[in-house]
């Protein structure tokens, strides 16, 4: 999957799931603040990621994810690793 496809797909399902204006989702924006995530929302986020990209998410994976760019790179790494298997 191309990086641009990951960004487009991610932005689309995050905007829908978290009921946010898609224009607020930018690479430099802080994921937690933009989506107004609390601890339960992180569970929803994990479920949405797993269902849209078909890989398992570990809670500790979110330690280094601050911005949407970090999130895109994380998804790209997981998707590419899955495709190599």
From TrEMBL:
The answer to whether keyword Manganese applies is no
Q: Which residues carry this modification: O-(pantetheine 4'-phosphoryl)serine?
A: 39
* One Pfam family hit: PP-binding
Q: Which UniProt keywords apply?
A: Cytoplasm, Fatty acid biosynthesis, Fatty acid metabolism, Lipid biosynthesis, Lipid metabolism, Phosphopantetheine, Phosphoprotein
Location in or out of the cell: Cytoplasm
Q: Where is the Carrier domain?
A: 1-79
Pathway assignment reads: Lipid metabolism; fatty acid biosynthesis
The protein's job, in short, is: Carrier of the growing fatty acid chain in fatty acid biosynthesis.
What HAMAP family does the record tag this protein with? Acyl_carrier
Protein name according to UniProt = Acyl carrier protein
Give the originating organism: Mucilaginibacter dorajii
Q: What is the lineage of its organism?
A: Bacteria, Pseudomonadati, Bacteroidota, Sphingobacteriia, Sphingobacteriales
